[in-house]
Protein backbone atom coordinates (compact mmCIF):
# COMPACT_ATOMS: atom_id res chain seq x y z
CA UNK A 1 0.00 0.00 0.00
CA UNK A 2 2.84 2.39 0.85
CA UNK A 3 4.49 1.59 -2.48
CA UNK A 4 1.24 2.32 -4.35
CA UNK A 5 0.83 5.60 -2.47
CA UNK A 6 4.37 6.66 -3.33
CA UNK A 7 3.92 5.77 -7.00
CA UNK A 8 0.64 7.66 -7.12
CA UNK A 9 2.25 10.74 -5.58
CA UNK A 10 5.15 10.62 -8.08
CA UNK A 11 2.66 10.32 -10.95
CA UNK A 12 0.77 13.37 -9.75
CA UNK A 13 4.00 15.33 -9.43
CA UNK A 14 5.00 14.33 -12.96
CA UNK A 15 1.65 15.50 -14.27
CA UNK A 16 2.14 18.82 -12.51
CA UNK A 17 5.58 19.31 -14.06
CA UNK A 18 4.23 18.40 -17.49
CA UNK A 19 1.46 20.93 -17.05
CA UNK A 20 3.95 23.64 -16.14
CA UNK A 21 5.94 22.92 -19.28
CA UNK A 22 3.25 24.16 -21.65
CA UNK A 23 4.07 25.34 -25.15
CA UNK A 24 2.38 27.28 -27.91
CA UNK A 25 3.02 28.14 -31.57
CA UNK A 26 1.51 30.97 -33.61
CA UNK A 27 1.18 31.73 -37.30
CA UNK A 28 1.30 35.49 -37.92
CA UNK A 29 1.77 37.94 -40.74
CA UNK A 30 1.15 41.29 -42.41
CA UNK A 31 -0.22 42.00 -45.87
CA UNK A 32 0.31 45.57 -47.06
CA UNK A 33 -0.27 47.01 -50.52
CA UNK A 34 -0.97 50.40 -52.03
CA UNK A 35 -0.86 52.50 -55.19
CA UNK A 36 2.12 54.82 -55.41
CA UNK A 37 3.18 57.54 -57.82
CA UNK A 38 6.76 58.79 -57.88
CA UNK A 39 8.02 61.69 -59.98
CA UNK A 40 11.23 63.66 -60.34
CA UNK A 41 12.50 66.83 -61.91
CA UNK A 42 13.27 66.22 -65.54
CA UNK A 43 9.83 64.79 -66.25
CA UNK A 44 10.39 61.17 -65.25
CA UNK A 45 7.62 59.45 -63.27
CA UNK A 46 6.38 55.99 -62.31
CA UNK A 47 3.05 54.65 -61.05
CA UNK A 48 2.38 51.20 -59.70
CA UNK A 49 1.32 48.91 -56.90
CA UNK A 50 3.83 48.75 -54.07
CA UNK A 51 4.17 46.32 -51.19
CA UNK A 52 4.97 47.34 -47.61
CA UNK A 53 4.06 51.03 -47.63
CA UNK A 54 3.05 51.05 -43.96
CA UNK A 55 4.51 47.77 -42.74
CA UNK A 56 6.63 45.07 -44.31
CA UNK A 57 4.48 42.30 -45.75
CA UNK A 58 5.57 39.11 -44.02
CA UNK A 59 4.70 35.60 -42.94
CA UNK A 60 6.06 34.00 -39.82
CA UNK A 61 5.90 31.36 -37.14
CA UNK A 62 6.78 31.90 -33.50
CA UNK A 63 6.45 29.83 -30.39
CA UNK A 64 7.37 29.62 -26.73
CA UNK A 65 7.65 26.81 -24.20
CA UNK A 66 7.42 27.25 -20.44
CA UNK A 67 10.32 25.29 -18.96
CA UNK A 68 9.27 25.96 -15.38
CA UNK A 69 11.18 27.84 -12.70
CA UNK A 70 10.78 31.13 -14.58
CA UNK A 71 12.62 29.85 -17.68
CA UNK A 72 11.33 29.58 -21.23
CA UNK A 73 12.51 28.59 -24.71
CA UNK A 74 11.31 30.16 -27.93
CA UNK A 75 11.72 30.29 -31.69
CA UNK A 76 10.92 32.90 -34.36
CA UNK A 77 10.92 32.31 -38.13
CA UNK A 78 9.86 35.26 -40.28
CA UNK A 79 10.11 35.92 -44.01
CA UNK A 80 9.27 38.91 -46.19
CA UNK A 81 6.64 38.83 -48.93
CA UNK A 82 6.23 40.89 -52.07
CA UNK A 83 2.50 40.36 -52.24
CA UNK A 84 2.09 42.70 -55.20
CA UNK A 85 3.68 40.01 -57.36
CA UNK A 86 2.85 37.01 -55.15
CA UNK A 87 6.40 36.02 -54.34
CA UNK A 88 8.97 36.00 -51.57
CA UNK A 89 11.37 38.89 -51.21
CA UNK A 90 14.53 37.02 -52.18
CA UNK A 91 14.91 37.79 -55.88
CA UNK A 92 11.13 37.42 -56.21
CA UNK A 93 11.52 33.64 -56.23
CA UNK A 94 10.21 32.32 -52.95
CA UNK A 95 9.75 32.73 -49.23
CA UNK A 96 12.71 32.39 -46.91
CA UNK A 97 13.19 33.42 -43.29
CA UNK A 98 15.77 36.15 -43.87
CA UNK A 99 13.86 38.70 -41.80
CA UNK A 100 14.40 36.72 -38.62
CA UNK A 101 15.39 33.17 -37.76
CA UNK A 102 16.21 32.74 -34.08
CA UNK A 103 16.04 30.35 -31.16
CA UNK A 104 16.18 31.74 -27.63
CA UNK A 105 16.29 31.05 -23.92
CA UNK A 106 14.67 33.47 -21.48
CA UNK A 107 14.27 33.97 -17.78
CA UNK A 108 14.83 36.42 -14.95
CA UNK A 109 18.32 36.99 -16.35
CA UNK A 110 16.91 38.37 -19.63
CA UNK A 111 17.02 36.67 -23.02
CA UNK A 112 19.78 34.92 -24.96
CA UNK A 113 18.99 34.84 -28.69
CA UNK A 114 20.86 33.04 -31.50
CA UNK A 115 20.40 33.30 -35.26
CA UNK A 116 19.62 36.02 -37.78
CA UNK A 117 18.07 39.16 -36.32
CA UNK A 118 18.04 42.98 -36.30
CA UNK A 119 21.24 44.69 -35.17
CA UNK A 120 20.93 47.04 -32.15
CA UNK A 121 21.60 50.18 -34.21
CA UNK A 122 18.69 49.44 -36.52
CA UNK A 123 16.35 48.74 -33.60
CA UNK A 124 17.16 52.20 -32.27
CA UNK A 125 16.65 53.84 -35.63
CA UNK A 126 13.31 52.12 -36.13
CA UNK A 127 12.04 53.16 -32.70
CA UNK A 128 12.52 56.89 -33.23
CA UNK A 129 11.52 57.10 -36.88
CA UNK A 130 7.91 58.33 -37.12
CA UNK A 131 7.35 55.98 -40.08
CA UNK A 132 9.02 53.02 -38.39
CA UNK A 133 11.39 52.47 -41.34
CA UNK A 134 8.60 51.70 -43.81
CA UNK A 135 7.01 53.81 -46.51
CA UNK A 136 7.76 57.03 -48.35
CA UNK A 137 8.18 59.07 -45.18
CA UNK A 138 10.79 56.94 -43.45
CA UNK A 139 14.16 58.33 -42.37
CA UNK A 140 16.09 55.65 -44.30
CA UNK A 141 19.81 54.95 -43.98
CA UNK A 142 20.89 56.32 -47.33
CA UNK A 143 24.41 56.87 -46.03
CA UNK A 144 25.17 53.14 -46.06
CA UNK A 145 24.25 52.75 -49.73
CA UNK A 146 26.15 55.89 -50.75
CA UNK A 147 29.20 54.62 -48.87
CA UNK A 148 29.11 51.28 -50.69
CA UNK A 149 27.86 49.28 -47.71
CA UNK A 150 25.33 46.48 -48.11
CA UNK A 151 22.74 45.54 -45.50
CA UNK A 152 22.85 47.54 -42.26
CA UNK A 153 19.62 46.20 -40.74
CA UNK A 154 20.37 42.59 -39.76
CA UNK A 155 23.19 40.21 -38.96
CA UNK A 156 23.41 36.50 -39.59
CA UNK A 157 25.23 34.03 -37.33
CA UNK A 158 24.53 36.31 -34.37
CA UNK A 159 24.51 35.89 -30.60
CA UNK A 160 22.51 38.53 -28.73
CA UNK A 161 21.65 39.25 -25.12
CA UNK A 162 18.66 41.37 -24.05
CA UNK A 163 18.23 42.86 -20.58
CA UNK A 164 15.21 41.71 -18.55
CA UNK A 165 12.09 43.86 -18.73
CA UNK A 166 11.81 44.63 -14.99
CA UNK A 167 14.73 47.02 -14.48
CA UNK A 168 12.72 50.14 -13.71
CA UNK A 169 12.66 51.44 -17.28
CA UNK A 170 16.21 50.46 -18.28
CA UNK A 171 16.46 48.37 -21.47
CA UNK A 172 19.17 47.33 -23.88
CA UNK A 173 20.95 44.61 -25.79
CA UNK A 174 24.35 43.57 -27.13
CA UNK A 175 25.09 41.49 -30.20
CA UNK A 176 28.04 39.77 -31.83
CA UNK A 177 27.86 38.16 -35.27
CA UNK A 178 30.40 35.84 -36.87
CA UNK A 179 31.49 36.51 -40.42
CA UNK A 180 32.58 32.86 -40.53
CA UNK A 181 35.59 33.46 -42.77
CA UNK A 182 38.75 31.38 -42.81
CA UNK A 183 41.75 32.91 -41.08
CA UNK A 184 44.45 34.03 -43.52
CA UNK A 185 47.35 35.43 -41.55
CA UNK A 186 49.37 36.05 -44.69
CA UNK A 187 46.70 38.40 -46.03
CA UNK A 188 46.49 40.23 -42.72
CA UNK A 189 50.26 40.53 -42.39
CA UNK A 190 51.24 41.57 -45.90
CA UNK A 191 48.58 41.70 -48.58
CA UNK A 192 50.82 43.68 -50.94
CA UNK A 193 53.21 40.78 -51.41
CA UNK A 194 50.58 38.27 -52.50
CA UNK A 195 48.84 37.59 -55.76
CA UNK A 196 45.63 39.48 -56.54
CA UNK A 197 43.42 36.52 -55.66
CA UNK A 198 45.19 35.99 -52.33
CA UNK A 199 45.40 39.68 -51.47
CA UNK A 200 41.71 40.16 -52.12
CA UNK A 201 40.68 37.17 -50.01
CA UNK A 202 38.45 37.69 -47.02
CA UNK A 203 40.21 37.82 -43.67
CA UNK A 204 39.03 36.48 -40.33
CA UNK A 205 37.53 39.95 -39.64
CA UNK A 206 35.37 40.09 -42.77
CA UNK A 207 31.66 40.06 -42.01
CA UNK A 208 31.99 40.24 -38.23
CA UNK A 209 29.65 42.59 -36.37
CA UNK A 210 29.53 43.86 -32.82
CA UNK A 211 27.21 46.44 -31.32
CA UNK A 212 24.98 47.39 -28.44
CA UNK A 213 22.09 49.53 -27.34
CA UNK A 214 21.06 51.08 -24.02
CA UNK A 215 17.92 53.05 -23.23
CA UNK A 216 15.61 54.31 -20.53
CA UNK A 217 11.81 54.59 -20.77
CA UNK A 218 9.71 55.89 -17.93
CA UNK A 219 6.19 57.26 -18.24
CA UNK A 220 5.93 59.38 -21.41
CA UNK A 221 9.69 59.80 -21.81
CA UNK A 222 11.97 57.48 -23.80
CA UNK A 223 15.64 57.93 -24.75
CA UNK A 224 18.11 55.43 -26.21
CA UNK A 225 21.54 55.28 -27.87
CA UNK A 226 23.32 52.59 -29.88
CA UNK A 227 26.61 51.85 -31.62
CA UNK A 228 27.73 49.12 -34.00
CA UNK A 229 30.62 48.11 -36.27
CA UNK A 230 30.41 46.03 -39.48
CA UNK A 231 33.96 44.86 -40.10
CA UNK A 232 35.40 44.84 -43.63
CA UNK A 233 32.00 45.95 -44.93
CA UNK A 234 33.52 47.84 -47.87
CA UNK A 235 35.83 45.74 -50.03
CA UNK A 236 37.35 46.13 -53.47
CA UNK A 237 38.53 42.90 -55.10
CA UNK A 238 40.43 44.56 -57.94
CA UNK A 239 44.16 45.15 -58.25
CA UNK A 240 43.95 48.07 -55.81
CA UNK A 241 42.65 46.05 -52.91
CA UNK A 242 41.16 47.79 -49.90
CA UNK A 243 38.79 47.13 -47.04
CA UNK A 244 37.09 49.35 -44.51
CA UNK A 245 34.88 49.11 -41.41
CA UNK A 246 31.42 50.62 -41.41
CA UNK A 247 30.52 52.24 -38.09
CA UNK A 248 27.11 53.55 -37.16
CA UNK A 249 25.95 55.36 -34.02
CA UNK A 250 22.64 57.01 -33.18
CA UNK A 251 20.63 58.50 -30.36
CA UNK A 252 16.89 59.05 -30.21
CA UNK A 253 14.29 60.46 -27.85
CA UNK A 254 10.51 60.81 -27.68
CA UNK A 255 7.93 62.27 -25.33
CA UNK A 256 4.31 61.13 -25.44
CA UNK A 257 2.24 64.13 -24.34
CA UNK A 258 -1.05 62.48 -25.28
CA UNK A 259 -2.20 64.96 -27.91
CA UNK A 260 1.16 64.83 -29.67
CA UNK A 261 4.30 62.67 -29.52
CA UNK A 262 7.46 64.39 -30.79
CA UNK A 263 10.49 62.30 -31.80
CA UNK A 264 14.12 63.16 -32.43
CA UNK A 265 16.79 61.00 -34.10
CA UNK A 266 20.43 61.81 -34.80
CA UNK A 267 22.64 59.31 -36.60
CA UNK A 268 26.27 59.27 -37.69
CA UNK A 269 27.67 56.78 -40.20
CA UNK A 270 31.37 56.44 -40.92
CA UNK A 271 33.78 54.33 -42.91
CA UNK A 272 37.30 54.31 -41.48
CA UNK A 273 40.18 54.79 -43.86
CA UNK A 274 42.15 51.55 -43.79
CA UNK A 275 44.25 49.98 -46.53
CA UNK A 276 43.74 53.02 -48.79
CA UNK A 277 40.01 53.41 -48.11
CA UNK A 278 38.92 57.05 -48.18
CA UNK A 279 37.15 58.22 -45.04
CA UNK A 280 33.40 58.60 -45.49
CA UNK A 281 30.97 60.29 -43.15
CA UNK A 282 27.20 60.72 -43.29
CA UNK A 283 24.90 62.45 -40.81
CA UNK A 284 21.12 62.25 -40.44
CA UNK A 285 18.99 64.51 -38.26
CA UNK A 286 15.24 63.86 -38.15
CA UNK A 287 12.52 65.63 -36.19
CA UNK A 288 9.00 64.27 -36.33
CA UNK A 289 5.74 63.88 -34.46
CA UNK A 290 2.57 61.81 -34.33
CA UNK A 291 -0.85 63.03 -33.20
CA UNK A 292 -3.87 60.76 -32.58
CA UNK A 293 -7.18 62.18 -33.83
CA UNK A 294 -10.30 60.07 -33.35
CA UNK A 295 -9.79 56.72 -35.07
CA UNK A 296 -6.68 57.91 -36.87
CA UNK A 297 -3.10 59.06 -36.47
CA UNK A 298 -1.45 62.02 -38.17
CA UNK A 299 2.30 61.96 -38.61
CA UNK A 300 4.92 64.35 -39.99
CA UNK A 301 8.70 64.39 -40.22
CA UNK A 302 11.56 66.54 -41.49
CA UNK A 303 14.97 64.95 -42.11
CA UNK A 304 18.28 66.51 -43.10
CA UNK A 305 21.14 64.48 -44.59
CA UNK A 306 24.73 65.67 -44.82
CA UNK A 307 27.66 63.91 -46.49
CA UNK A 308 31.22 64.75 -45.48
CA UNK A 309 33.55 66.15 -48.14
CA UNK A 310 30.61 66.88 -50.42
CA UNK A 311 28.01 69.57 -51.01
CA UNK A 312 25.47 67.05 -52.27
CA UNK A 313 23.31 67.16 -49.15
CA UNK A 314 19.55 66.68 -49.27
CA UNK A 315 16.39 67.22 -47.21
CA UNK A 316 13.20 65.21 -46.92
CA UNK A 317 9.72 66.36 -45.87
CA UNK A 318 6.93 63.88 -45.14
CA UNK A 319 3.33 63.94 -43.95
CA UNK A 320 0.87 61.08 -43.60
CA UNK A 321 -2.33 59.77 -42.06
CA UNK A 322 -3.30 56.30 -40.79
CA UNK A 323 -6.97 55.43 -40.23
CA UNK A 324 -7.75 52.41 -38.05
CA UNK A 325 -10.73 50.47 -39.37
CA UNK A 326 -10.05 47.90 -36.63
CA UNK A 327 -7.17 46.67 -34.50
CA UNK A 328 -5.92 44.67 -37.47
CA UNK A 329 -6.81 46.76 -40.53
CA UNK A 330 -5.57 50.23 -41.46
CA UNK A 331 -5.94 52.63 -44.37
CA UNK A 332 -3.04 55.00 -44.93
CA UNK A 333 -1.85 57.84 -47.12
CA UNK A 334 1.64 59.34 -47.41
CA UNK A 335 3.11 62.36 -49.18
CA UNK A 336 6.86 63.00 -49.30
CA UNK A 337 9.32 65.25 -51.09
CA UNK A 338 13.10 64.98 -51.28
CA UNK A 339 15.19 67.97 -52.34
CA UNK A 340 18.80 67.58 -53.47
CA UNK A 341 21.53 70.17 -53.15
CA UNK A 342 24.61 70.67 -55.26
CA UNK A 343 24.67 68.04 -58.01
CA UNK A 344 22.96 65.30 -56.00
CA UNK A 345 20.53 62.89 -57.68
CA UNK A 346 19.10 60.96 -54.71
CA UNK A 347 15.66 59.54 -55.47
CA UNK A 348 12.69 59.14 -53.16
CA UNK A 349 12.05 55.46 -52.56
CA UNK A 350 11.26 52.93 -49.86
CA UNK A 351 8.94 50.49 -51.57
CA UNK A 352 9.93 46.85 -51.62
CA UNK A 353 8.83 45.95 -55.12
CA UNK A 354 7.64 46.97 -58.57
CA UNK A 355 7.61 50.78 -58.31
CA UNK A 356 10.93 52.00 -59.70
CA UNK A 357 11.83 55.45 -58.39
CA UNK A 358 12.95 57.80 -61.19
CA UNK A 359 16.18 59.69 -60.57
CA UNK A 360 15.95 63.49 -60.64
CA UNK A 361 18.25 65.71 -62.62
CA UNK A 362 21.35 67.02 -60.82
CA UNK A 363 20.29 69.11 -57.85
CA UNK A 364 16.63 68.32 -58.50
CA UNK A 365 13.73 67.05 -56.42
CA UNK A 366 11.77 63.82 -56.06
CA UNK A 367 8.10 63.64 -54.99
CA UNK A 368 5.83 60.72 -54.17
CA UNK A 369 2.49 59.79 -52.68
CA UNK A 370 0.90 56.48 -51.77
CA UNK A 371 -2.53 55.25 -50.72
CA UNK A 372 -2.80 51.77 -49.29
CA UNK A 373 -4.23 49.22 -46.87
CA UNK A 374 -2.50 47.11 -44.24
CA UNK A 375 -3.92 44.01 -42.56
CA UNK A 376 -2.29 42.06 -39.73
CA UNK A 377 -3.16 38.53 -38.64
Structural summary, described in words:
The chain is mainly beta. It has a single domain (26-376), classed as Porin (Beta Barrel). Helix content is 11%, strand content 52%. It contains 5 helices and 18 strands. The protein has a 16-stranded antiparallel beta barrel. Strand 14 (280-293) and strand 15 (296-307) form a beta hairpin. The longest helix has 19 residues, at 2-20. It is globular. The N and C termini lie far apart (55 Å).
Count of extended strands: 18
The helix content is 10-25%
CATH architecture: Beta Barrel
> Going by CATH, what is the homologous superfamily?
Porin
Q: Which secondary-structure class do the elements indicate? A: mainly beta
User: Would you give the CATH topology?
Assistant: Porin
How many DSSP helices? 5
Gap between N and C termini, in Å? 55 Å
Query: What is the averaged pLDDT score?
Result: 85
Write down the overall geometry: globular
Topology:
Elements: H1 2-20, E1 23-40, E2 45-51, E3 58-68, E4 71-82, E5 87-88, E6 100-107, E7 110-118, H2 120-127, H3 142-146, E8 154-162, E9 170-177, H4 185-190, H5 196-199, E10 209-218, E11 221-236, E12 242-255, E13 261-271, E14 280-293, E15 296-307, E16 314-324, E17 329-340, E18 365-376
Antiparallel strand pairs: 1-2, 1-3, 1-18, 3-4, 4-5, 4-6, 6-7, 7-8, 8-9, 9-10, 10-11, 11-12, 12-13, 13-14, 14-15, 15-16, 16-17, 17-18
Amino acid sequence: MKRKAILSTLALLACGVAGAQSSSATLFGVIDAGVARLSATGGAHATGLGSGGNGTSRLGFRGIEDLGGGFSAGFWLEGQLNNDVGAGATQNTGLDFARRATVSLGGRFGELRLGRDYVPTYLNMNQFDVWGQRGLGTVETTGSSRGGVGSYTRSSNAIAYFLPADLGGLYGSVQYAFGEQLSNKAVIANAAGLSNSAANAATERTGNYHGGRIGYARGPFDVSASYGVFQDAVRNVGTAFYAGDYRIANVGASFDAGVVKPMLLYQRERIDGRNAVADFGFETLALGATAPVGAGLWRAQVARYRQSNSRNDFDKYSVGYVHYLSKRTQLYGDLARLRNKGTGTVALTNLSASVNAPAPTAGGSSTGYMLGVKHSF
